[in-house]
Amino acid sequence: MTTRRRDKSPDDRLPEEHALSRAYDRAPREAPPAALDRAILAAARAAVAVPRGRASFAKRWAVPLSVAAVAVLSVTVVLRLSEQGALEPSRKSAEVAPASPSAAHGFLGQGTDELAQIRTDPKTAAMPVPPKGTPAKKERARELSESFAKATLETERRANAAPSAPATRTGVVETMANEKPTPLAPVPQQSERRTEAMDRAPVSEPLRASVAALKQETKAIGDRAEVISVKANGNPGAYEFVVGIRSPDSGCAQYADWWEVLGVDGGFLYRQVLAHSHVGEQPFVRAGGPVPIARDTVVWVRAHMNKAGYGGAAFKGSVATGFRAASLPVDFAAALAQQPPLPDGCAQ
Predict the structure, then answer these.
(1) What's the pLDDT at 65?
(2) Residue 97 burial by CB count (10 A; 0-12/13-18/19+): exposed, middle or buried?
(3) What is the pLDDT of residue 111?
(4) In whole angstroms, what separates CA 239 from the centre of its chain?
(5) Checking DSSP bridges between strand 268-273 and strand 322-326, what pairing results, if any?
(6) Alpha carbon of 262 to those of 138, 193, 294, 299, 339: distances in Å?
(7) What is the pLDDT of residue 251?
């Protein structure tokens, strides 16, 4: 692409350019008529012109209406500020201002019953007004101190003058200090009085026998064997039970002589006889079987003492769900104590 050199003078133009310029100069120029321009300008002036009556109204009421608008706005702002409390006087001066003499008197007059009595006493209520230049709090404190001292002396004088009060030199305070408390007789406890009454009451022979039997039964309950654990191994119809037992063995005279498995209806299923006492082995574990039950059969497992019989803690459950400690009545299937197999002596 080439760029044309800028013209420096009319002599540098090409011959064809001179003819073209003369043709443009002789061509007619399109322009709106002058009448159209005048019509447009007249219409514009008519559109923005204001009638004479309206112009006079605007010039006359512009200033008054502006003043009224400013006044209404100012009143509205003041009313809103008053409603919000922004124009209320500050309370800081009232909070930090020193208390009046009456307030100081009330503050110093609180705290004890004696000062309240002095304040209401007609003899001490009328007090002189503190002189000018003296702080009200200090003057009131001095007056209250003097009034309290006078009231104390008056109280002591009346106490000393009473016929029932002993005539001592220092009055009631010294009397109370010199008095000795009267010792009180010891009161026996309720349990001691009840025990003494029971000892003095006559006791019949049947009652003594009942008490002795109750003591023997209580001791027997404490001498019973308890099952503390149960596990089952093997196959259905021939399970092996491993039973843990705690018993108060003392030799062949008192020992746990068997543990057994029975149904929930009290039916006999299996018994493992213990041949000797387990004095030095507490608690102990013994296995036995086979026990002919199914996997989901619920059974009881309990132990027996050679003297006390049944009655200790027992376990209940099945091979499928496991065995847990449960409460079994003492008389539950008590006749099984005669069911064989039974122990054949006790090995030493």
Answers:
(1) 85
(2) exposed
(3) 44
(4) 54
(5) unpaired
(6) 97, 51, 13, 6, 12
(7) 92
Cα separation of 310 and 220, whole Å? 10
What is the length of the chain?
348
How does pLDDT run across 224-277, given as a tens digit for each residue?
Answer: 899 999 999 999 999 999 999 999 999 999 999 999 999 999 999 999 999 999
The Cα 16–Cα 192 span in angstroms is 153
Determine how β-strand 268-273 pairs with β-strand 284-291: unpaired
Is residue 276 within 8 Å of residue 348, measured between CB atoms? Answer: yes
Provide the token pair at 255: 């020992």
State the helix-helix crossing angle for 113-120 and 136-161, rounded to 10 degrees.
Answer: 100
DSSP assignment letter at 347: B
The CB-side HSE value for 168 (13 A sphere, CA atoms) comes to 15
List, in order, residues 6 or more apart from 292 with CB less than 8 Å away: 237, 238, 269, 270
Backbone φ and ψ for 192, nearest 5 degrees, come out as -65, -45
Query: How many C-beta atoms surround the C-beta of residue 243 within 10 A?
Result: 24
Cis before 329? omega within 30: no
Query: How far apart are the C-alpha atoms of 34 and 203, rounded to whole Å?
Result: 153
Give CA 17 to chain center in angstroms. 106
86 three-class SS: coil
- Give one DSSP letter per residue of 290-316, joined into a string: EE---TT--EEEEEEETTTBS-S-EEE
In the chain, which residues have pLDDT < 50? 1, 8, 93-94, 96-112, 114-115, 118, 124-127, 129-130, 133, 164-177
What token pair was written down for 13? 């133009």
The per-residue pLDDT for 109 is 43
Q: Residue 105 contacts by C-beta under 8 Å, 6 or more apart in sequence?
A: 136, 140
How far apart are the C-alpha atoms of 315 and 228, rounded to whole Å? 8
